[in-house]
DNA sequence: CTTCGACACTTCAACGATGAAGGATCGGTT
DNA sequence: AACCGATCCTTCATCGTTGAAGTGTCGAAG
């Protein structure tokens, strides 16, 4: 194993000088810097992570707490995780993966052991138990999602309300008047999952403003569940011409069911999805969709943590940022003008 | 911050004793152990990760290198990542997430810095550049996937050949004689991705033994691509009554296309999928599927790494294990007896 | 000719844990 | 009484890096 002392010897300087060259915290002459750098390269030196963490009281690791639960669309989680990892590396940080089932104790463990300098929490609930722990330990953290009391932490999330509103606007612009909103399973709403509630609220408000009639129906995302949901919608409101689908699992079944019931998309009914573009492109017809960027979400979360860590190490009190990322509407082939009244 | 010295003082012993109580490496009297344990609890002591790593030359972290690429079905990757994390925690280990784009340098960085004690590599290529690095650094590692030269590392993977063979057997048992194998996009085969090639080879061999005629066709997984693939299959072999689908993205489109072309499943044609059960359950009809457990894969990978670490720290040379996990066939509603000849 | 500040580097004491080696205590042997 | 071995605990050096404080040198100002 190559240590900083080996590098120092090889470059003919003290180990402190090597440390300073590497951290850039003191002025070092051009000549010395060159010699140290080439010694580092020649010996293939990599600073020992443990020693560094111990001495500097910084692990250069952030922890990412991901849900075990899989009613969230999983690829999005993975995309966020990868975006976080990539963004963190650009700041010289690595990412530790923690699962949600460790709960508040997990947060305590990571913070108290100094394993990570900061945490990013996914799948945050409105009154999440982990948040008080973070405050108590004085740990820097960013939530992906919103919480009721987010003092002492930063937050970033998609602007789900705006996404809901975009759906309502698009369908209203096309002349639709009766809309069905196919949501997640009822469990998601009972859990008060922010993304589900806020999308619905955003949609509802805008729908009201635009004079749309609409039904919200829960749906588990299986074929059977979607069939049941659709049947009830068509029974209650036979005049429905627009569908907003938030549940990724329900999209395929819904399209199939509409086709088999003799309705063509977008001539008879329009379908707008709240899902990733990649998924929206896979269906036939390609779906008009409202999307937020998972990559951006991960990137912003990392920026927020880095900001907090920098502020804290300068002795300041970090700002509790709240970022809401604006969603985008991409019009494809699944939405069109409302059919003329028969 | 609570240190081991604080605990020692509180329990009226030396810090070594606390360390021994916690690690269990020396006999400590019942009474002392009790006092130390309660001091730990009362003070909320968590050993400092950096100090521990430095002194013990063990970080209690394993790194998991995940692909950035997303032509693999992403939920499976996430499931593996979570299984790895959960299994690692049971051994007192945490998991660091590294992305594949760091390549061999990433492996070097992690190994040389002592950040992780071992690595698990996903998305392994047959002549993966990272493997020689692992050998050179003497780093313990497990591959998820197979490589040409896996000396010095352990491997675990699904037995894709067996999965292919299971498909052939099931369709042959049902009396089908002309089968189409809908695979991944051609890029996957050009890359010589092991899972794709081995499934196909396993299917081909068994199909030969059972006297099946079959076509292998690549498919990108979009609706258009699936439509094109299916059209060609039906043009070349109108008598095809069995479909094996390995590309998750092609399943939905294929079912829709078969239906719109007037073929019912499973009366006219049988469809068997190589995909997760969760996905297979989502379609109508529910799909007969051959599955390997992603959870098991993650679990075994962790066991292998733990075994290697234990052997290495006992001064031994770890065994280069190779595990192939047996897939399961779950018969559902999408396969049935071959139709009688007209 | 002293004094001073700037610069470039070195010395050295942390950081918090581990574990080999070295006591202390005790009942049991000789 | 002296010794022994077992048991249980402590002392202390060590891990590799960091960064505050200190040293040495040099040129400019007083």
TrEMBL record, chains A, B:
UniProt keyword Transcription present: yes
HTH lacI-type domain boundaries: 2-56
Annotated region described as Disordered, given as residue ranges: 312-342
Gene3D superfamilies: 3.40.50.2300, lambda repressor-like DNA-binding domains (1.10.260.40)
InterPro entries in alphabetical order: HTH_LacI (IPR000843), LacI/GalR-like_sensor (IPR046335), Lambda_DNA-bd_dom_sf (IPR010982), Peripla_BP_I (IPR028082)
Keyword terms, alphabetized: DNA-binding, Transcription, Transcription regulation
Entries under SMART domains matching the protein: HTH_LACI (SM00354)
One term of GO molecular function: DNA binding
Matching SUPFAM superfamilies: lambda repressor-like DNA-binding domains, Periplasmic binding protein-like I
Pfam family, one: LacI
PANTHER family hit by this protein: LACI-RELATED TRANSCRIPTIONAL REPRESSOR, LACTOSE OPERON REPRESSOR
The protein's name: LacI family DNA-binding transcriptional regulator
């Amino acid at each position: 194993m190559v240590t900083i002392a080996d590098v120092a010897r090889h470059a003919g300087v003290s180990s402190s000088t090597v440390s300073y060259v590497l951290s850039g915290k003191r002025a070092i002459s051009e000549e010395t810097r060159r010699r140290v750098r080439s010694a580092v390269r020649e010996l293939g030196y990599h600073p020992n992570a443990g020693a560094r963490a111990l001495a500097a009281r910084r692990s250069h690791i952030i922890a990412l707490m991901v849900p075990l639960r899989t009613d969230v669309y999983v690829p999005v989680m993975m995309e966020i995780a990868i975006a976080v990892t990539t963004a963190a590396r650009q700041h010289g940080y690595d990412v530790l993966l923690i699962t949600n089932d460790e709960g508040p104790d997990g947060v305590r463990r990571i913070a108290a052991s100094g394993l990570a300098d900061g945490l990013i929490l996914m799948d945050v609930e409105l009154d999440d138990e982990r948040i008080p722990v973070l405050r108590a330990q004085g740990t820097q953290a960013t939530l992906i999602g919103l919480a009721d009391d987010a003092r002492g932490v930063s937050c970033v999330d998609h602007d789900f309300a705006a996404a809901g509103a975009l759906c309502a606007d698009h369908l209203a612009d096309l002349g639709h008047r009766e809309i069905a909103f196919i949501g997640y399973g009822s469990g998601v709403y009972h859990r008060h999952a922010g993304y589900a509630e806020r999308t619905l609220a955003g949609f509802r408000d805008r729908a009201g403003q635009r004079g749309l009639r609409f039904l919200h129906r829960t749906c588990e995302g299986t074929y059977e569940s979607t069939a049941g949901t659709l049947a009830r919608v068509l029974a209650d409101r036979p005049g429905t011409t627009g569908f907003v689908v938030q549940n990724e699992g329900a999209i395929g079944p819904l399209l199939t069911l509409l086709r088999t019931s003799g309705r063509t998309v977008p001539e008879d009914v329009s379908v707008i999805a709240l899902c990733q573009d990649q998924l929206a492109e896979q269906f036939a017809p390609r779906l008009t969709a409202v999307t937020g960027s998972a990559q951006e979400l991960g990137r912003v979360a990392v920026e927020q943590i880095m900001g907090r860590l920098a502020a804290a190490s300068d002795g300041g009190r970090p700002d509790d940022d709240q970022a809401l990322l604006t969603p985008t509407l991409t019009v494809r082939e699944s939405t069109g003008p409302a059919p003329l009244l028969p």
